Amino acid sequence: MKILVINGPNLARLDIRDSSIYGDLNYGELTSLVQIAAKEHGFDADIRQSDDEATIIGWLHEAADKKLPVIINPAAFTHYSYAIRDAAQMLTAPLIEVHLSNPLSREEFRHTSVISAVARGTIAGFGPNSYVLAIIALKNLIG
Ligand code: DQA
User: Which range (15-19, 35-39, 58-62, 128-132) has the least confidence?
Assistant: First the structure.
């Protein structure tokens, strides 16, 4: 079964972001790990990244139309994009929000997620394993 994995702004630049917060994997290594974990659990993961809000909204529309499950790391859009939230709300298959870091242990502006309320659940703070745990959660939800 196909799943869409959406990564938001600046996540393609993990190699130059703060490794004490985001870990040591670069974006390519992260996507390989997610791809392998998805396969292990019987999913075909379509993994995408954009710095552009409109592009991410378009991908959510596509997932809604195709009834695809979605794992999303909205990155900084997590904290203020009502447009991404509204698009996410139209999904009919499960949506899981993930974060590499634990935003609740960081600056106050990161303590709010406008996405969480329309997600089935949120997994944060486990580095790349947040994605792997989301894949396992999806498997448990949809078999
Ligand atoms: C992030 C957390 C966000 O607060 C931040 O803006 C990111 C990455 C994470 O994966 O930990 O870009 O979503």
Answer: 15-19
According to DSSP, residue 3 is labeled E
Q: How many domains does the chain have?
A: 1
Are 3 and 138 within 8 A, CB to CB? yes
Domain that holds residue 12: 2-142
Q: Which amino acid, 15? A: D
Among the atoms of ligand 1, which is closest to the Cα of residue 10?
Answer: 12
**pTM confidence score:** 0.98
Number of the ligand 1 atom closest to the C-alpha atom of 21: 11
Return d(Cα 17, Cα 95) in angstroms, integer: 26
d(CA 12, CA 111): 23
